[in-house]
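Kindly inspect this chain:
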Amino acid sequence: MAAEEELNISIPSCLHMVSAFRALEPTDVVISFAREFGGGSVTENVQSCIWHHCISKADLKWQGPYLRRFLKKLILEIESSGGLVLDELYEQYTSYMISLRDYVASKGNSRVLKTISFLFPNESRGFESCPKSRKLEVQLRCSVNMLEGDTGCSIWPSSFFLSEFILSFPELFANKCCFEVGSGVGLVGICLSHVKASKVILSDGDFSTLANMKVNLELNHLRTGNQTSGNIVHCVCLPWESASEDDLRGFSPDIILGADVIYDPSCLPHLVRVLAVLLKHDRSDSDLSAGRDSDTSPDELLIHPPAEGRVAYIAFVVRNIDTFNYFLALVEQANLKITDLTEKIQVSNFLPYLRSYNRSTIRLFKIHV
């Protein structure tokens, strides 16, 4: 279609608008990008872009209520500024109003399908050989009821930050066995697979969360299996309080990761015990130096000094200072070292359109023996 050919989705404001829509960002955020794309108003060209790249490709089953809210606000925005609304948008809104009546009556699906687009700046390391691959798109089925007992299936802000950290330093994770505690929707594991980790082990203590995680891995074309299979991503049920030392030592990871796992004081002794066992498992001298490049950058030396052995990276928001201090005390009691990397390294912003994600509130710590 000629109209489609005229649309340049590579323009930053357009790319951000489409990415924000697919991530189901608040409708006001998407409309603000639409205004920016249109030079101050939602022009017919912008509406055409929304129609072709957002509305026509949306999934009513997983995004229905969001689509209806978005179209309602979009139409009000255009009409209030004296603009003309494309017929397709009016017709689609009417269609949604009719088709979603049963959905509203039954309170709808508690899960939605989001697409998180990591937009790579030109200088991103590790992607020079693929100049056309400037975007990583991750589909995630997640919960809309974070505060109603479905926390494991929600996307937590620190998982975004940890994913950006992984994509900022791909050489750090390539060819390494990586183990995540409290993997939730699986976003971090998908990014680890993207940077060619030799083995990715995702764990969670909740069976419903594990089931949803496996769905997300399959949505992103990753094979799943248990820890002994030959598949690229391994999903294991690991309640921290009952995990045995023998089981933990069997994983033998090079790198341990965790996003927003420091929130419940009653769980912290078990979490620190798990980290201590994973980190203190004996390593040979060859293991300690394996994969270390003499050309390692200063940032990488700070993050992962040569011959250091296993290391854990924990990203989280300090929501309660007493809980955070308790965690620090437990780490010290376990004879582990902890370093705050937050202000010492530069993590690239791969999610510039994600206004609901406040990366400035997140801290990144390194833990090692």
